[in-house]
Specification:
This protein is mainly α and 168 residues long. The protein is 80% helix and 0% strand. The protein is elongated.
């Protein structure tokens, strides 16, 4: 990657990070305003409480307006499952942890399958070489193509080499 291209990607990432930080700040302000409005309504003390709640609601509307303006500058994809998780009142960090655990289990399972197929390939190759020595070259080709281990038996190597030399 060219240095100028890497530099411009770094600047772009920095701008995205700053926008996300701004969104986070705005969301924290919204949460604080909601908390203050809740306190004002629970400590109702007559007309002055109504005025305090109105101020909180006006501030909340302007904060939501700011968030609405910011949303068009971001291109962030949030998986539907995470949104549903949060809507159900659950912690998205738990979703992430569970997702990582599931992926790790699937990875172990697939690695086990791959190991089993490799072992089967090697055993099958050995059995084919034993049963059909004339196919040893084909078996070797298949093993090399599939990153298998080609291990002819020591007693077979000289006989096979002699056999090939006589055919030439």
């Amino acid at each position: 990657m060219a240095p100028s291209m890497a530099h411009s990607q770094g600047q772009l990432q920095h701008q995205v990070d700053m926008r996300l930080d701004n969104v986070e700040k705005q969301l924290r302000n919204v949460i604080q305003t909601l908390y203050e409005a809740q306190v004002a309504t629970s400590d109702y003390a007559g007309p002055q409480s109504i005025e305090a709640v109105q101020q909180q609601m006006n501030r909340l509307v302007s904060q939501y307006s700011e968030l609405d303006k910011i949303k068009d500058t971001l291109d962030v994809k949030i998986p539907k499952e995470i949104v549903m998780y949060v809507e159900d009142g659950r912690n998205p960090d738990i979703y992430t942890r569970e997702f990582v655990e599931i992926v790790a289990k699937q990875n172990q399972f697939l690695n086990g399958k791959m190991r089993a197929f490799k072992d089967f390939r090697d055993v099958l190759a050995e059995q084919i070489n034993t049963t059909f020595p004339e196919l040893q070259g084909d078996v070797e080709h298949v093993l090399r193509a599939t990153s298998g281990k080609y291990r002819p038996k020591q007693e077979e190597v000289p006989a096979q080499m002699v056999h090939q030399k006589h055919e030439s």
